[in-house]
Amino acid sequence: MKAVFSTLSPVEMAVLVAEPLIMVWYITALLASIICPSPSSINLPRSAFPLVEMKLSLWLPISVLLQPVISVYVLLPLYIYPYDDAGTFLWQPVIKAVAAHPHVQWQIIINPDSGPGSSKYPDSQYITAVSKLHKYSNVKMIGYVDTAYTRQKITEVQKQISLYAGWAKHTRENITLSGIFFDDVDDAASAAPYMKTVSQAARSAFPKSHGGSVTFNPGTNDSPISYYDYADTVVNFESSLADYNNAKTISTFPPRHRPREAIIANNGKPTAAALQTFVKQAISSSIGGIYITSDCCYQAVNATLLNAMVGDIATAQAQKSKRKLILWFA
Question: Mean pLDDT throughout 82-98?
Fold first, then answer.
């Protein structure tokens, strides 16, 4: 439950708490109208029975309006080192985009050295950078692990997961992670037992009950359906933007798992209109995570493109909420 609640704004959280209380209120009214159908029969004024006057036709629109809008999140492969040789903070564009849109959710993939590296903790500059991201409640960070299409030894994968989990014990700064991103996932059916085993290791280190999550990145839509039993999110597209075709591409994904699917389009420079279409199509299709970048290998952050994408997500979310209100009050 913590993982779900972490994606909601404070207003949406209040709505989730209020909705069952209102439902109880309505049920009480319904029972009262059955038990005491006529207020005058017990010689009390009509005003003594305000709940009896509640109607189902009133509750239904209220119920729909109170449903929180849970939308797409940014799945960002943040593989660059946080500082350059001159001391410039290269993650600053990410920090600015996160802060500018506090209701847009992020899952940021942390990758110090094609994995956590061999040390107990990352170096001091990495610690500083990760702790900066921890200040934002709309950010969730997950650690990068390369499965090398099952060629990586399971013992090595387990070791890397344990190292990431150990970051939570750092005493000076908060560098706790919330899960694992498995990259280079084999999409062959024969890889399923391997992925089940490494997923279990990740679940043990980052329990779902504590907000932990597991993401698989086969990068294609051909992976075994059992992957959805082992992972919270499956990246069904990771390729050049030129290979992506919005609704046509999404139509090839397993339809009942859309909120648990993700799209990463790289090596492209979309026009403003194309970017808006990319975002709107993902949201209307209930896709879970998205990212689009001009870089092929996630070795740079295009601040202009990132800000535009996050702005489009925020705008699309607001329009979705507005349409919901118009539907019931028109």
Answer: 97
Q: Are 198 and 227 in contact (CB under 8 A)?
A: no
- Asked if 260 contacts 228 with a C-beta cutoff of 8 angstroms, the reply is yes
Closest among 178, 154, 53 to 106, alpha carbons compared: 178
Structure tokens at 9: 């704004």
Strand partners, 156: none
Distance CA 46, CA 116 (A): 69
**Cα–Cα separations (whole angstroms), residue 118 to 64, 82, 121, 122:** 50, 18, 8, 9
b or e along 42-56 (b: 16 or more beta carbons within 10 Å of the residue's beta carbon)? eeeeeeebeebebee
Task: Identify whether the C-beta of residue 175 lies closer than 8 Å to the C-beta of residue 121.
Answer: yes
Residue of 187, 75, 162, 92 whose CA lies nearest to 133: 92
pTM higher than 0.85: no
Question: What b/e string do you get for 202-216 counting C-beta neighbours within 10 Å, with b at 16 or more?
Answer: bbebbeeeebbbbbb
CA dihedral 258, 262, 266, 272 (to 10 degrees): 60
Beta strand 73-78 pairing with 139-146: unpaired
pLDDT band at 317 (very low <50, low <70, confident <90, very high): confident
Two tokens at 200?
């279990």
pLDDT digits (tens, 9 = 90+) for 138-161: 999 999 999 999 999 999 999 999
Contact between 300 and 80 under an 8 Å Cβ cutoff? The reply is yes
List the domains of the chain with CATH numbers. 2-65 (no CATH), 73-320 (3.20.20.80)
